[in-house]
Amino acid sequence: MSEHVVVALGPVDADTVAPVLGAGVTFVTDPTPDDLAVAEGAIVRADRHVDEDFLTRQAPRLRVIARTGVGVDLVDVAAASARGVPVVITPGAGSRAVAEGVFAMALHLTKRLKPLTELVREGRWAERSTLPMGDLDGATLGIVGYGRIGRRVGEVAAAFGMWTLAHDPFSPPPPEIACADLGELAESSDVLTLHAPLTDGTRHLVNEELLARVKPGAILINCGRGGLLDQDATLAALEAGRLAGVGLDVFDPEPAYYHPLFDHPDVVLTPHLMGMTRRATTLTFVDAARGVADVLAGRPPAAVADPDWNHRKATA
Q: What is the set of active-site residues?
């Protein structure tokens, strides 16, 4: 009989996860209420809720929750911590994939791929000079949020020959690229990309006031959290010509509700998938399983949503 039961909340690749969890662990991908009642670990996908009621009534024996990714908007971290349950996150696994997604959107919009495709498809070759393309080489990239993903975006930008500026009041960027004022960052950036966490202080960080200061013709990309920008204000900036293009991988709420912004020809949309490439998803499952295995074995996990959890555990 297995020593531990670990459950999946959402689709998780058992062939990847089970070997990492190791012997003595039963991994259940489609748990019943009975499975949840005895589960000591849970690997949770982004769209699944874990609240105090779930912890108390459905899975009272949980010792660890692993979130596949870094966002814990739908996980009650405080309730879990109060029960001594760490919420493991997997911050490094998808960083490179998200950064690639940022530049996929930036290139799509800067190089006018959609209208140029339509031009060729419709036999309007003579009109090609009416759709001027931009350049990333020599452009300024403004990064809002300089954590793992923001730093990786900056590394990729250097390969394109871009200048980089960054704003992050919580994790200060290197002095040579730091921009203390968000408005100044907006005024200077040809491409503005969002990678800040969603908090009460960052909700609608990109609003009418900030967009009034955006460099005319800038491109705005959000692969961070949907609530970071005001969609109404973003559409108004596009229609006014203040923004030249918008790329969105995240929405508020999710799944995304229709918004007129979605119909604008200079908008590219993806359903919160930029960090979920095949390789990144596998790495995320491995890191989540490793975090669960660490906790069940009495070892501190590599990364947790509550930054004080390991310290409290060590001094308990």
A: 225, 254, 272
163: DSSP letter: E
Are 8 and 43 spatial neighbours (Cβ–Cβ below 8 Å)?
yes
Whole-number Å distance between alpha carbons of 194 and 197: 9
| Distance, CA of 160 to CA of 134 (rounded, Å) | 13
User: What range does the domain containing 50 cover?
Assistant: 4-92+278-315
**How many domains would you assign to the chain?**
2
Q: What is the pLDDT along the chain (316 residues), one digit of tens a residue?
A: 458 999 999 999 999 999 999 999 999 999 999 999 999 999 999 788 999 999 999 999 999 999 998 778 789 999 999 999 999 999 888 899 999 999 999 999 999 999 999 999 999 999 999 999 999 999 999 999 999 999 999 999 999 999 999 999 888 899 999 999 999 999 999 999 999 988 899 999 999 999 999 999 999 999 999 999 999 999 999 999 999 999 999 999 989 999 999 999 999 999 999 998 999 999 999 999 999 999 999 999 999 988 666 555 655 5
| pTM of the complete model | 0.86
Same domain, 148 and 226: yes
How far, in Å, CA of 164 to CA of 140, rounded?
6
Residues 241-274 as b/e (b if ≥16 CB within 10 A, e otherwise) read ebbbbbbbbbbbeeebeeeebeebeebbeeebeb
